[in-house]
Structure formats: C-alpha cells, structure tokens
Amino acid sequence: MTIREELERRERTYLSPFAVCSADTQGRDYPIAPDDLRTQFQRDRDRILHCKSFRRLKFKTQVFISPEGDHFRTRLTHTLEVAQVARTLARCLNLNEDLTEAIALGHDLGHTPFGHCGERMLDKLSVEGFAHNEQSLRVVEVLEGGEGLNLTKEVRDGILHHSGKVAPATLEGKCVARADRIAYINHDIDDALRAGVLKEFELPGEILRVLGETHGQRIDTLIRDIVCESKDRNDIVMSDRVQSAFDELRTFMFEKVYFDSWRHKEEAKCDYVIRMLFEYFMEHPSEMPLEYVQIAYRDGNERAVIDYLACMTDRYALRTFQQLFSPSAFPVI
Ligand code: MG
User: Fold this and answer.
1) How far is the CA of 40 from the centre of ligand 1 (A)?
2) How far is the CA of 61 from the centre of ligand 1 (A)?
3) Which residues fall inside 5 Å of ion ligand 1, going by CB?
4) Which pLDDT score, from 0 to 100, does residue 259 have?
5) CB–CB of 304/288 below 8 Å?
C-alpha cells in the first residue's frame, strides 16, 4: 500500500459522512497518474501554493491601498488567515482539511490591484462584467502556466463560489466562504484601528457583548458557534444570535470603513489609474507581455486587457502607469 492509499484509507475511516474523500473526487479535466505520496487535494494545494499568482497576492491591497506600514494585511496574509480559520472549522467538523486548504489558498487568486475598488472599476470597463471570484477560476483554469493548473472539480467549485449568490457544492467550500467573511471583517477592524480611521469606542457595544471584546475572542466565538451548530449536519451554519451580531458588525464595517468618505479621494485616483491603463492597452495590445498578446488573438483585446490588469499587483500597476504617463529624464540636445 502506498502512502497515498493509506491516507485515502484514513479519510474513509475518520472523516464525516458529509466530507469529500479525496479518492471520490470528480477529477480533473486532464487526468494525471496518481501520486505515491499525496492525495488529489494535497496536490491541488501544492499546485496553488507554487503558482505565480499566489506570490503576487503579497503586493495586492486588502483594504488599505498599497499599505506602507509593515503590519497591515495584504491579500496574501488575508488568504493565510482564511486558510487558518477554514482548516480549524474543517478539522473540528471532520471534513477534508486538504480540500479546504486548497480552496482557501486559491480563493482570491483573481483579485485585482487596489482591492474591491479595482474590481468595481474593471466591472465597469468590461462589457462582460468582472467579479474577482470568477477571475480566480479563470486564473486556475486558463491563465496560470498558459493552460491552467488542471485542478480537481471540487477545488474549482469552492474557488468560484466562495462569494456570490450560488453556494459551494461541498461543506469544505462552505467552510472557506464562512472563513473568508470571519477573517476579513475581523482583520479589517484591526487594520482600521491601526490606521486610525476607527476608534475602539466606536465599535458597537451590543455586538461586542455577543462576539467578544478582542480580535481573538471574536474569531473564537464565531468558530465555536459554527462548529457547535454544524456538528453532524450537512450544512455550515451559525446560531441566529451570533449570525445577527455578525451581520450587524458587517453592516457597521461597510458604513464606517469600506464605503466611508475618507476612502473616496484615494479610490478616485485608483479608478483613474485603472481606466488609463485599460484605455492605453486597448489601443496598444501588442505592448502587453506575450501571454496576454496571445489571449488577445484568441479571445479579443478586451478579455486580454482585463486579464492583464486583474493580474497586476498594486505596485506593478502604479509603476506601469508612471512609465506610460509620467515624463522621465531625457537628454536635452
Ligand atoms: Mg477573500
């Protein structure tokens, strides 16, 4: 028996009847020979971790645009926090932790520069519309390595449906969708306090009494509640009391941090950068890197420019903007 077969045997023995066993995967578009050491979902996790889009998450905005401070979250640290919360849920509920981790690490690969502000702008500019979860799927199916990462269907489903109206097909995917919200609401509070746009006393007291006074306590309450309510159930749910406190906290964050007026000035600049880059590369598609020129031949200019812009990090977008639109030193003859 190989190590992988032993791991598959353990999954069958110990996982919940609602979990997805890796041996039961619906498979990949292009079948590959089984590995001796790793299960299918472990291989997917490794494929995601080693791809270029994953490394670029380091320089993409979470909430604070191109943050100068070393302690602010980026898309990469957000992704790692989501993976931690999701794995804790999966382990406590006897779900497939490897599948959960693969989905969590891949969920935001399609995120744009400048966070949701960049996403809204690309949505406005694109005739087809743009959503980061759909782009994450496009990254793993098409853009990475020229022909995609060839991931299993369960991982791709979890990535696509971590946000949006359709729920993921697996409980592991649902754990990631919950973990994403738990992670971002809580770490964005922490970052907003650090940036001084939120003061401790402004956090609604009623909500803190239910969820906890500190960052750690709140995450603990949310995880415990989900574990308690979802044990031996074919769903991932919260109790009404904790769910409504969490919803109120989310509404508070949207009003106070995500859409507050302090952001408007900087976001208008980000919109401008994205719009100018979009218009420039629509007119000069051959100036994009070769992989995007090839997409332009195959799928049209707009698809290629949107892919190119979505892949950019904050600093790459700003550097490209500067190179194209800001005069540099030149010799005077
Ligand atoms: Mg996320």
Assistant:
1) 23
2) 11
3) 108, 180
4) 75
5) yes
The tens digit of pLDDT for each residue in 273-314 reads 999 999 999 999 999 999 999 999 999 999 999 999 999 999
Tell me, yes or no, whether 322 lies in a domain: no
pTM reported for the whole predicted model: 0.95
CA 124 vs. chain centroid, Å, equals 20
- 176 lies in some domain: yes
Domain-located, residue 326: no
Query: Treating both helix axes as pointing N-terminal to C-terminal, what angle do 301-311 and 115-125 enclose, rounded to 10 degrees?
Result: 180
What separation in Å is there between the alpha carbon of 10 and the centre of ligand 1? 30
Give distance in angstroms: CA of 308 to centre of ligand 1. 20
Distance 79 CA to ligand 1 centre (A): 6
Alpha carbon of 107 to ligand 1 centroid (Å) = 6
- The tens digit of pLDDT for each residue in 259-278 reads 766 677 888 999 999 999 99
Residue 67 is predicted with a pLDDT of: 59
Q: From the CA of 48, how far away is ligand 1's center (Å)?
A: 15
H helices of 107-214, in order, are 115-125, 132-138, 153-160, 171-195, 205-211
Instruction: With cut-offs at 50, 70 and 90, classify the pLDDT of residue 230.
Output: very high
Residue 151 φ then ψ, to 5°: -90, 165
Is 296 contained in some domain? no
Report whether 156 contacts 27 (CB < 8 A).
Answer: no
Spacing, Cα 285 to ligand 1 middle (Å): 30
pLDDT at 323 over 90: yes
The domain containing residue 163 runs over which residues?
41-262
Q: What is the CATH number of the domain that holds 234?
A: 1.10.3210.10
Question: What whole-number distance in Å separates Cα of residue 24 and Cα of residue 8?
Answer: 10
